[in-house]
Design goal:
By secondary structure, the protein is an alpha+beta fold. The protein has 2 domains: about 120 residues, Rossmann fold; about 110 residues, no CATH class. Helices cover about 25% and strands about 15% of the residues. The protein contains 7 helices and 10 strands. A 4-stranded mixed beta sheet has the order 1-2-3-4, sandwiched between helices. It has a 4-stranded antiparallel beta sheet with strand order 5-6-8-7, covered by helices on one side. It has a two-stranded parallel sheet with strand order 9-10. A hairpin with a 6-residue loop joins strand 5 and strand 6. The two termini are about 25 Å apart.
Length: about 250
């Protein structure tokens, strides 16, 4: 209402979060172009047209791909195998009682998947009704494992040393582990809007995120360079020391 531009940035796909971060915003704001929506860890950027409908910013798509080229088919196949192994191991450990995290009420729903076909052989699909699962994003933009709590992500998944020059793997969200091309980060969107389009001006914008040590790390990089970061993480433990005062 005061004329600000809102830029939502998520690691999820468009269909997953548009109902949270785009559709509920006032139609007038969307029609005026003051609502931007970036998805898949800033792989794609959507804007709204004069009717308030989403259209992809193809210029940003080219920019993002140039900075972080998609993964090769062979790498994707290897990551899928890692995802299968890790998800299967987690649910086997849960079934054997060696993982206590699913006793926590927050994670207890994971018990519903013990002994299921998906837990034993996670499907490679983008169907969010399938759980646990492995997603290969469009154009090999990323490989994402769903179904293991973030606190245990690095215990069950690891990018092989030979791939670390092409792939960055890290736990994100609550139950995901992202395998993205090196260089793909929410920082790409910030750089694009500041340096290419000029839509973000130092001193006239701020960033807000709940995973400053995870998927929102890219939004923190200009904290002392005109884009202050505000942490809304669930606890101080999720905030790096240099941003402690921002929580």
């Amino acid at each position: 209402e005061l004329g600000a531009t809102v830029v939502a940035v998520t690691g999820s796909k468009l269909a997953t979060h548009r109902c949270l971060f785009f559709d509920p915003l006032p139609l007038e704001a969307r029609c005026s172009g003051r609502v931007l929506f970036a998805v898949e860890t800033a792989r794609k950027l959507y804007r709204s047209n004069a009717d308030g409908q989403l259209i992809e910013d193809v210029r940003f798509a080219a920019y993002s791909e140039a900075q972080a080229p998609p993964l090769e088919d062979a790498i994707v196949a290897e990551l899928v195998a890692i995802g299968h192994k890790g998800i299967r191991a987690f649910y086997e450990d849960c079934a054997q009682g060696s993982v206590s995290i699913i006793d926590d009420p927050t994670h207890m729903f994971l018990r519903d998947y013990l002994g299921t076909a998906a837990a034993a052989n996670p499907p490679v699909t983008s169907d969010k009704r399938q759980y646990p699962r492995i997603e290969v994003r469009e154009g090999n933009g990323a490989v994402v494992f769903f179904g293991v709590p973030i606190a245990l992500g690095r215990h069950y998944f690891e990018v092989p040393p030979l791939l670390t020059d092409r792939v960055e793997g890290k736990p994100v969200g609550r139950y995901c582990f992202d395998c993205v091309p090196c260089g793909l980060s929410k920082a790409l969107l910030v750089d694009y809007l500041m340096e290419v389009t000029g839509e973000l001006a130092p001193g006239f914008a701020l960033a807000v995120g709940d995973q400053p040590m995870g998927n929102d790390e890219g939004l923190t990089r200009r904290h002392t360079d005109g884009l202050p970061f505000i942490s809304v993480a669930e606890s101080h433990e999720m905030v790096p020391d240099h941003l402690a005062d921002c929580h």
